[in-house]
Amino acid sequence: MNKEESIRFATKYLEDLLSFFGINVAVDSTRDDEVIQLSIPSTSMNSLLIGKEANNLRALQHIVSQVLINHNGELTRVNVDVADYKRQRAEHIAEQAEEWIRTVRQTGNSRRLNLNAADRRIVHKVAQDYSDIKTHSEGEGRERQLIIEKITEE
């Protein structure tokens, strides 16, 4: 199925999946580069859909993505958001990253953080605005950590 069909299919599939749980809402869909963006409006079930540490949200993304792969969708990368949770979280992490970077710049001490992949990407992006700061990740899987360091001049 082509890109437009992939978007329509993913939207309908997610709406059907939600209705199975008694959540009857219209899912908003857009495309950002090669990623299908699916936005679920706010309901009384937000906390269930998001889950602890957004695990349920990631599971919904994974399910929709796998179904697209199985149906030979041209687009298979999916981002699901519930009531702008991810956008608000990204803004919060970006603000936190500014504080972490400020502390590293003032003290010169590097900072190690246990963050999920999405949050690490946000911090890496914020750090790009600072010529005296570098970030990198170390470790594997759940043990992967983000390191914020001040660049020392030699």
Put the structure in a nutshell.
This protein has 154 residues and is an alpha+beta fold.
Please, could you describe this protein's structure?
With 154 residues, this protein is α+β, with helices and mostly antiparallel strands. 47% of the residues lie in helices and 21% in strands. Strands 1-2-3 form a three-stranded mixed sheet, with helices on both faces. A three-stranded antiparallel sheet has the order 4-6-5. Strand 1 and strand 2 form a beta hairpin. The radius of gyration is 19 Å and the shape is elongated. The chain starts with a helix and ends with a strand.
Give the tags.
single chain; about 150 residues; alpha+beta; three-stranded antiparallel beta sheet; 5 helices
List the helices and strands and how they pair.
Elements: H1 3-20, E1 28-32, E2 35-40, H2 46-50, H3 55-70, E3 77-82, H4 85-107, E4 111-113, H5 117-127, E5 133-138, E6 145-150
Parallel strand pairs: 2-3
Antiparallel strand pairs: 1-2, 4-6, 5-6
Largest sheet: 3 strands, mixed
The low-confidence parts are none
What is the mean predicted local confidence, pLDDT?
Answer: 92
- By DSSP, the count of extended strands is 6
Contiguous helical run count = 5
Distance between the termini: 55 Å
What order do the strands of the largest sheet run in, or round the barrel if closed? Answer: 1-2-3
| Radius of gyration, CA atoms, in whole angstroms | 19 Å
Shape: elongated
Percent range for β-strand residues = 15-25%
Secondary structure category: alpha+beta
N to C succession of SSEs: HEEHHEHEHEE
